Amino acid sequence: MARLAGRRLTGFALVRFVEDGDWFADCPVVPDFDGIQVEVCHWKLDELSIGWDMIDTAATITGWAFTP
Question: Each residue of 1-55: pLDDT tens digit?
Fold first, then answer.
């Protein structure tokens, strides 16, 4: 986290449903601080995972289907 000191938030990525634009809370939120990605994923009620620069936010997500 010390690497982020003094850096500005310059972007972010998250997964949204195409149908209504709602945020898909089971996927990571990826804020970008001047080229350093922080990947935050919350699971269950008390588990938090934080990673750095591992997720390709430009990749197409496949394998999910909407079933009304």
Answer: 888 999 999 999 988 887 887 888 888 999 999 999 999 998 777 888 999 999 9
Cβ neighbours of residue 56 under 8 Å, at least 6 residues apart? none
Q: CA-CA distances (angstroms) from residue 29 to 49, 63, 67, 68?
A: 11, 19, 24, 25
Number of domains in the chain: 1
Are 45 and 61 in contact, with CB atoms under 8 Å apart? no
Pair 49, 34: CB distance under 8 Å: no
Note whether residue 60 is domain-resident: no
